[in-house]
Amino acid sequence: MKHTRLFSTFLLLFLFMFASAACGGGAAEPEAEEPQTSETEAEAPAEEEMTEEEPAAEEPEAEEEMAECSATVGVILPYSGLAAAVAPSIETGVKYAIDTAENCEIELIFEDETDDPTNAVNKARKLVEEDGVVAIIGPQLAHTAAAVSAYAEQVGIPHISLSAADGPQSAHSFFLGSGVGDAIPSGTFAATDLGAETAAVIYMDYLYGQQSKDGFVKGFTAEGGEIVSEQAVPFGTSDMAPFLENVGDADVVAVLLLNPSDFAFVRQYHEFGLEQPVIFISNAPQEAPLLMQMGDDVIGMYGASWYTPMIESPENGAFVEGYMAGKYIEAFGFPNSPPGIATHVAYMGAQLLLEALKVTGGDTDPAALNEALAGITELQNPAGTVTMGPGRVAIHDQYIQQVVPLGEGLYGWSVVKVVEDVEPK
Predict the structure, then answer these.
(1) Which of 2, 192, 241, 360 is deepest in the core (most CB within 10 A)?
(2) 332-352, pLDDT tens digit by residue?
């Protein structure tokens, strides 16, 4: 289990290294000696050599088939509503991955989930029945994703959710993480690593917030911790004073909040003079640009998620470098901000679809795609290896993180601990 070396890693966020890859030529095949009995047969080795060399060329042939692939994919994101702040990050992640599909032309049609399950299903229906999409990526919110999952089952369309689930939703839905399962490590960390014996939990009152709260409580109490309060925060709450007043002398404060509640919490936490450690049960909503707006008040707070740009690995280094140097950061509009969890999860969702297209050889029939998706057991991505469990919910590493200053008004999530192979519960 390794920690990141903060400053050396963050340099990746600002340096674009131009490199040219040197192609090494393969050794020539030795001439076949067996078929030499006649002149007629002597011509055969050339044909046989071509035949024998074809297996090495099978991949290019498959790529030629993929070159003829054409697909329309629907993407449902929270462009309006209380999760709208992360929509640009998610859209960027999907486009980043799809741009790697050099052998298949994929048209993306984006729709707004608007925090409303009914509206999300209506948008999914429009994508399927009017636009003819072969798959749906999204929504991002758990309650809208659950509704779209049910619709996907009805119409037999592959659905790759960018949200979390704790078990199978349908035979056509694939989830990249779990709600309760992914939150357990934060509770365990609070009890074992922070040494907290009591905890106050403040969470957004919607499906994912409830799942996250349940996971934290499960992990914390399993280590002997006691929950002294659980407070549900309505969407749109901009004054966190009533909730902070009830924190009391708990050893740790665990939160799952969305904008504007997270901004208010960070600011008012210090105004109240509270000094207990804070851990964001999931810090997915707190992307780097939002940390910039929160300022120094957020320094030292903990979080947990599937990804941080400060993971040290060649794969993540290339992912961050490509993002920072390309058109994606320009489209996002934050020139100094690295890709965050929302960008990474969206990238992984689109990447999963591309892997399925490779399996089908470019066949975009929804039934073929769904079968291919169901057969994918592992997916390599910038955060490591993700295993798709039998319930079509991803098993992956969870990164416990802490906000650190990076200079020039920038802040980042530095890895404190890695919890490997976190499963849905």
Answers:
(1) 360
(2) 556 667 888 889 999 999 999
